[in-house]
Amino acid sequence: MNDILPPDSARWEWLEGVIRSLMDRYAYRNIRTPIVEPTALFVRGLGEVTDIVEKEMYSFEDRLNGEHLSLRPEATAGVVRAVSENSLLYDGGKRLYYMGPMFRHERPQRGRYRQFHQIGAEALGFPGAEIDAELILLANALWHELGLQNVRLELNSLGQPHERQAHRVALISYLQQHSALLDEEARRRLHSNPLRILDTKNPAMQDVVNAAPRLIDFLGAESLTHFETVTAILDANDIAWTLNPRLVRGMDYYNLTVFEFVTDQLGSQGTICGGGRYDYLMEQVGAKAAPAVGWALGVERVLELLKEQGKVLAAPACDVYAIIPNAASLPAAIKAIEAMRAAGTSVQMHASAASGAGMGSMKSQFKRADSSGAAYAVVFGEDEMARGVVSVKSLRDGSGAQVEQALSDVSSWAPNLQSRATN
Asked: Which intervals hold domain Aminoacyl-transfer RNA synthetases class-II family profile (predicted)?
């Protein structure tokens, strides 16, 4: 777990701002759920034999009432619980999104921490394949907004439970015939969760799993039509995709469409966004049945990929650094600074030196103004203040141009000093 400090935190805020704007354009509304939930919610929702439940959850017993609780390892189960408990689907489907920290006790890797952050979109109450496609289009639009390249889309369909069961029988039979080639983890999962064996990263097992029965070959007409509708919409929108028959995702609650956006630039942690349809999760957590589909992206991974592709976001600097040579000018200067801020201008005010040596020399204040990244220095000099003006000096265009502006008319000229860029 790590701290996120300035100026790096500004990059997080920028990314969150881009996503909020995009979610608004797609009519997705924000939901915020607790970080701590009953452990049973995740056991029922994610599956008892998933890695998350078996190995990675931070779980504890509430010492006041003995309740078993867990820090959320993902957000979908909590969103489903909140939607059910608050009857949000009583008047139709809902499009929701969330942002926040998740917790898994796993080996830290590049772009992955034990406290990590996800941003996700969930559409609940909509059974149609067009919503699966809409969510994929939403994620794809984000990559364009961010300028990310070399992100590929992989798709699969997990069908419906009865189709998965038929595939499961065939898969277990096939793997039993090749049991000598299975590693210990695969043998342990052979009868409890054989589908997850297809997602193995063990190089020695790749030939075995590549030749295994494909779930998509067990799908009936309705499941195939659902999948073909999704891909037709993607094709019509010029979204490239590839079929990955081994794509199963890490939670047990998925059915029909599953997908991942993957990059080769982050090593083994190449998935930056993944999701799919989960029509049975509402029932699994004890709620009234309702269809749903969603995805989540890893914030750390997306920021790491932006950095890897040379899109290093500059922390937004302030518009103005206020230089105040004389402490006697502070009351009037701060009044003007507050008027500038009220007009929407970002102002960093110079403060007295820690040594108690007063406000500091003009030279030292200009040095601090330059290092602050501000576009302009506004000088509240004694002579200027006596004449009811301030000096405004450009710090970034190389001209060093300096003009005077009236103190009495701050709100008219201060907005013209707004020059912050986001990247």
From this structure: 15-325
